[in-house]
Description:
Number of helices: 7
Number of strands: 14
Strand order of the largest sheet: 1-3-2-4-7-5-6-8-14-13-10
Helix content: 25-40%
Shape: globular
CATH class of the largest domain: Alpha Beta
Amino acid sequence: MSIASLSTLSLRTHRFSGLAPGPKLIVTGAVHGNETAGTRGIARMLGELDAGRVEIVRGSVTFVPVCNPLAYLNQRRMGERNLNRRLQPTATPQDYEDRIANVLCPLLAAHDVLLDLHSFRSPGRAFVMRGPADNRGLLEPFSHATAEARLAAHVGVDRVVDGWMAAYAGGVARRRARGLTPGAVHEDPGYGVGTTEYMRSQGGYGVTLECGQHDDPQGPEVAYTAIRQTLALLGLADLPLAPPTRPFECLTLAEVVDRHAEGDRFAKAWTSFDALAAGELIAVRADGSELRAPQAGHIVFPDAHARPGHEWYYFAQPSARPL
């Protein structure tokens, strides 16, 4: 998408409606402004729709190529804060992302299915994040796990991660136990709510596809393939549906660990999904205390530049929910 044509005062959407009934899909890109694989994948699909090479014949699809124009125009992750945290409408918006949320949240709620396209900082292969199993709990009640798993299986990747909200809520509990750290993230499990979590809260379902490292030249292709597959899977377009990529590696985020002080340091330069042996040294706190893997697993989203009081890394282990 041309930066010159983008405004920070509006949210641009592209909607296509088939003449036969079907589900309502929304595809989002650049929730974080420096994650452009989804924006480029969406642009490619819009070109094919405009040229008539792909047609929406059932249901509808709405594309939002850039969900955070301010961050996108500045080529950074956030405008004034992280749009993918504490995503909810508010009558008293305090910042740019609050104003975006007041437009984006009703848009999400008006659809049935979400494909949210992201990328990540460190090297690694693409993966998809799904939500919880069906449940009636208070944290993230849900009733579309089977449909969501089917979507996750067909977007074109073979690594599937779950457990986001439960891990985040556990981190909140630990922050509360040690008291508020200056500059700490919001001490409320609701702060972990992003696009897919909000979608589920409104009765829909969706997945987050992490298309690879930010600058991976294959990232836009990963995004484009996922869009085609989703259109085919939902029957919105008469496109061939490729079979799932198997075998799947299914992981669950078991724990989030915060950085406490500037002196906290990793034991090595970790990359997301690096394997960890039971007891392996992960990091050392400023006071000399060691953080070791509680069992065999993986380190996920390590952030050597995390500010004190913020998420430093996640520990993942094999999921009990095969796809």
